[in-house]
Design goal:
Layout lengths: L1 E3 L3 E5 L3 E2 L7 E3 L6 E5 L7 E2 L6 E12 L15 E2 L6 E11 L6 E4 L5 E4 L2 E3 L4 E6 L7 E6 L2 E3 L3 E6 L2 E6 L2 E3 L9 E4 L6 E3 L1
Parallel strand pairs: 1-4, 2-5, 3-6, 4-7, 5-7, 6-8, 7-9, 8-10, 9-11, 9-12, 10-13, 11-14, 12-15, 13-16, 14-17, 15-18, 16-19, 17-20
């Protein structure tokens, strides 16, 4: 079902866990109107889905770590949004603004299918904006990143042993905070397309 967050600032002190839900849509009123501020520093702000969930959507809100500044040092596991163990079927992130986390803004791991990231702004995170990684020998696949931007963070997009990754029309501008490449593809990755 739909969980709608009307305009406002929502303060949360623990991880928002959607991993026991199927067919869930967490929806705001737009990233300039609906803002989640997470004070979590040792885990993800949102655990979105697992291999057992289906049809997870996160749209139209801002998600900020409550310090409201890029961390001075990395905090392992302090992702903005992540899946756990993989993606059962379809995870969509659209119209999100994700900032100020101690690890990647979005973290995708394990067997996936498919993942769509559309028109998101991912800025000022102390790692890559989007990190894609293998888990237990299972590689992410069918991940599409369309539009939006990754800016003012440590790195752009990292894919380790991914299959069928498609990146198009993403504005990556890291500036003086850069410690990693704009796009980093490593491991036994294959079937990638980059355009625009």
């Amino acid at each position: 079902g739909i969980i709608f967050m009307p305009p406002g600032i929502y303060l949360v002190s623990s991880t928002i866990d959607l991993t026991t839900k199927t067919n869930v849509w967490l929806m705001g009123a737009g990233p300039t109107n609906t803002q989640i501020r997470s004070s979590v520093t040792a885990a993800a702000a949102i655990n979105a889905c697992t291999t057992a969930t289906r049809f997870t959507k996160l749209t139209d809100f801002a998600l900020y770590q409550s310090a409201l500044a890029i961390p001075g040092s990395a905090r392992s596991g302090n992702y903005g949004i992540r899946n756990t163990t993989g993606v059962g079927y379809q995870w969509v992130c659209e119209g999100l603004d994700v900032r100020y986390f101690g690890d990647a803004g979005l973290f995708i791991e394990g067997a996936t299918g498919p993942v769509q990231i559309r028109d998101c702004s991912i800025q000022s995170n102390a790692d890559y904006g989007i990190k894609i990684a293998t888990l237990g020998g299972n590689s992410p696949q069918d991940v599409a990143i369309h539009g939006g931007n990754i800016q003012a963070g440590w790195g752009g997009i990292s894919a380790n042993t991914g299959l069928s990754l498609h990146i198009s029309d993403v504005d990556i501008e890291l500036g003086t905070t850069a410690q990693y490449p704009c796009v980093h593809i490593l491991g036994g990755s294959s079937g990638f397309t980059l355009s625009d």
